[in-house]
TrEMBL record:
CDD domains: ABC_Mj1267_LivG_branched
Coiled-coil ranges from the UniProt annotation: none
Lineage: Bacteria, Bacillati, Actinomycetota, Actinomycetes, Micrococcales
Pfam families referenced in this protein's UniProt entry, alphabetically: ABC_tran, BCA_ABC_TP_C
InterPro entries registered for this protein in UniProt: AAA+_ATPase, ABC_AA/LPS_Transport, ABC_transporter-like_ATP-bd, ABC_transporter-like_CS, BCA_ABC_TP_C, P-loop_NTPase
SMART domains: AAA
ABC transporter domain span: 34-280
Domain of life: Bacteria
Protein name: ABC transporter ATP-binding protein
Length: 304
């Protein structure tokens, strides 16, 4: 794995040399952190996810893209223990995760951001951070009977939370209700909370959704920072500009399957990807995700 030192300084350094052989769906990675085999999930008669084989490269930023209903969120839910597949297996850092509940997946170092729900909005920013901590000794009955141990842990968690909030420029908001934050600040809080458990792999679900342009760069920098600190990032995103800008690798899903993989520029030129966004019925113009196709074209023009 090597960083491309020739990349222009205004653009983030992309990590290259991630795969072995052709960049085709299911291709081998030099150092995979996640390996998925034969994972499928149906809802009634609908096949939401049907992934034959997929490897996510370690130490890089991978974007999971695809038109609406492609199965991206369902795959995220399966990988993080929030949902169960009909069949299939997958490993994180060489350890099988099939059947492992969400809280244990997170303790093992694979953490996903979860959206600031109504209930979490009624907690303070600091309390949201503490929810993300790995060692919640207060939950343990034995430790709870020994409050001095619990308090020490609480103080350590609070200090850690403050350090992270400072980096995300949210420290002055620590006592505010999370619901009072702007859309962009909420996204920052979601990411900050994920960092409380010292993750190896951070999974972000649409990090750019609802973020106004003023905070966009800050959010991108934080994601790039995760990689700089040695973490692996896997994110679902519709914003193609962001994907092109920060992703080292892109996995494209359509109708539950992986239809393309590669570096962002190559993937966005792939006919299978354009077809996926246009839907099967080009001429009928049914269900076509034309907005994304326009952005794909725009990005390709930018590059030339
Ligand atoms: N709990 C559920 N019950 C029934 N169908 C579901 C459920 N969850 C997802 N689906 C269906 O599974 C398919 C995949 O949905 P999913 O949300 O994973 O797609 P997605 O790629 O994340 O889409 P989007 O980009 O719009 O969020 C869709 O057809 C969706 O309607």
């Amino acid at each position: 794995m090597s960083d491309n030192a020739a990349a222009p300084s205004s653009r983030p350094l992309k990590t290259t040399g991630l795969h072995d052989g052709d960049a085709a769906p299911g291709c081998k990675k030099i150092d995979p952190i996640l390996e998925i085999d034969g994972v499928s999930r149906t809802f009634g008669g609908l096949i939401a996810v049907d992934v034959d084989h997929l490897e996510i490269p370690r130490g890089a930023i991978t974007a999971l893209i695809g038109p609406n209903g492609a199965g991206k969120t369902t795959l995220f839910n399966l990988l993080t223990g929030f949902d169960k597949p009909d069949k299939g297996s997958w490993t994180f850092d060489g350890k099988s995760l099939a059947g492992v509940p969400a809280y244990r997946v997170a303790r093992m170092g694979q953490v996903r951001t979860f959206q600031l729900t109504k209930a979490l909005g009624l907690l303070s920013v600091m309390d949201n951070m503490k929810l993300g901590a790995k060692d919640q000794d207060g939950e343990n009955l034995f430790r709870a009977l020994l409050p001095f141990l619990w308090r020490k842990q609480e103080q350590a968690n609070e200090k850690k939370a403050l350090d992270i909030l400072e980096r995300f420029m949210l420290d002055t908001k620590k006592d505010d209700y999370a619901a009072s934050l702007s859309g962009g600040q909420r996204k920052l809080l979601e990411m900050a909370r994920a960092l409380m458990s010292d993750p190896t792999l951070v999974m972000l679900d649409e990090p750019m959704a609802g973020v106004n342009p003023a905070l966009t760069q800050s959010l991108l920098d934080h994601i790039l920072n995760l990689k700089a600190q040695g973490m692996t990032v896997l994110f679902v995103e519709h914003d193609m500009h962001m994907v092109r800008h920060i992703a080292d690798w892109v996995v494209v899903m359509a109708e539950g399957r992986v239809v393309a993989e590669g570096d962002p520029y190559t993937v966005m030129q792939d006919q299978a990807v354009i077809d996926a966004y246009l839907g099967k019925h080009h001429d009928e113009d049914l269900g076509a995700d034309t907005e994304h196709v326009e952005v794909l074209k725009e990005l390709l023009d930018d590059e030339l």
